[in-house]
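Researcher: I've been going back and forth with a colleague about how Craniofacial development protein 2 might be arranged in three dimensions. Neither of us has a model we trust, so I'd like an independent prediction. The organism is Cacopsylla melanoneura, in case that matters for your notes. Sequence below.
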Amino acid sequence: SGGGTPTFADSNKTNQPNKTKNQNKLTVATWNVKTLLDPKHSSTTNTPRRTAIIAKELKQYNIDIAGIQETHLKNNGLLEEKNSGYTFLWSGCDDNGANHYGVAICVRSDLLKKGIVSEPCCYSDRIMSVQILNQDSETTFITCYAPTLNSDVHVIESFYEKLKQIIERIPRKQGIILTGDFNARVGKRQNQWEDALG
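Model: Here is an independent structure prediction for Craniofacial development protein 2. You can compare it with whatever you and your colleague have in mind.
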């Protein structure tokens, strides 16, 4: 997981400290939640939904928008957790697909209602995005879930080619926030971590 407080200043303009000081900031994060599916045996009356638990955690850290990976949800959808004030937007496989992956963007509901965050673009069960409108600037927020190193080479190459195409279509004047679980390993001695799929 990670986070930060990026500003959404126009990247083509420099030396404008007064302008950037006045711009709103959003706190962003990314989180592989392993699943958003609730256990089949859980009782809806006494067991909190996973989305409710995650929204509560995001609220505790004052997160405005978070990329969520490995949701295991099917299709595309929206779910609002009213108690915590967050909305989950997700992109998954179709009904006939295997729901091993899935991504979501969890955003403060008021940002959606004010039109600061757009409806999502759902590209696949591994990549989705939203637009963030902030004063005179626009930022594309992307979240993704990359294949592991032991995935088929075609699957890996196809994922990164699709991500590249999405990024290349974003106008140069727009900002980009790229979040995700890239299943990466650090270093060359990968056989020391045989149980890690990265």
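Researcher: What would you highlight for our discussion?
Model: I'd start with this: The chain has one domain: 2-185. After that, consider the following. The longest helix spans residues 153-168.
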